């Protein structure tokens, strides 16, 4: 399977060496400006272990959000510019992000990935959107599931190349998927898409799947939308309820096969495994 990269996307990163990222210690405390941060867990997956995050992401990874504050929604020129602003922030913190996250998934994450592997209707492999350091892809490949890794941030693709993995720079909002996959994996990414873009994103993911193909998502539960501001830049966060997202999935041609909530540091997250029905 190949992804056709549009003229706006950058080139593929290629493998060059062995990764040498190390952990610099625990992420420092957060400075919060809005009380809502106590309600919405700032963790792009939930639990800390020994100063590192066990697949523990906030809306944005803790390593990317040092001295992070929240700000209520501020209109910007376009949804695409919002997404690019978020991607630019991840470019600056990719190595800290990778060093702050354990390579092994949490128990909840491992269960979700195994369910994805078990639900695949064929051997056509999985397309991963937002591969980051590539730890989830490593886990699936250990289960004999081939993964086509992609990320909007070149820095993540370069990090994976340095540890002998191949990931392509790919922007889901503007680039086209060529070919079909048995599954799509998109963890901790959905919250960075504008509400007005989600229907198009889900339709594109449905079109990337073979009949009866499956999609595994994770996202933070809640309502509203805002910016998180950290040392590395600004991150767009759009929250969804269970019912709100499930309605969008059905409209895009999916049915939910399985869903599970798990605890973030301060708020719930949700895994969803959905199957393409048309």
Walk me through the structure:
Helices cover 26% and strands 28% of the residues. The protein has 278 residues and is an alpha/beta fold. The strands form four sheets. It has a seven-stranded mixed β-sheet, sandwiched between helices. The protein has a three-stranded antiparallel β-sheet with strand order 4-11-12. A two-stranded antiparallel ribbon has the order 1-8. Helix 1 packs parallel to helix 4 (154-162). The longest helix is centred in the first third of the chain and has 21 residues, at 79-99. The radius of gyration is 17 Å and the shape is globular. The protein starts with a strand and ends with a strand.
What fold name stands as the CATH topology of the largest domain? Rossmann fold
The dominant shape is globular
The biggest beta sheet is recorded as: 7 strands, mixed
Radius of gyration: 17 Å
Look at the structure and give the CATH class of the largest domain.
Alpha Beta
Could you give the order of strands across the largest sheet?
A: 7-6-5-9-10-14-13
In short:
The chain is of the alpha/beta class and about 280 residues long.
List keywords for this structure.
6 helices, 7-stranded mixed β-sheet, 3-stranded antiparallel β-sheet, 278 residues, single chain, alpha/beta, 14 strands, Rossmann fold
Task: Give the SSE layout.
Blueprint (H helix, E strand, L loop, with lengths): L1 E3 L42 E3 L2 E3 L14 E4 L6 H21 L7 H13 L6 E4 L5 H8 L4 E5 L2 H9 L4 E3 L6 E3 L2 E7 L10 H10 L1 E12 L4 E6 L2 E6 L3 H10 L2 E10 L4 E9 L2
Helix pairs in contact: 1-4
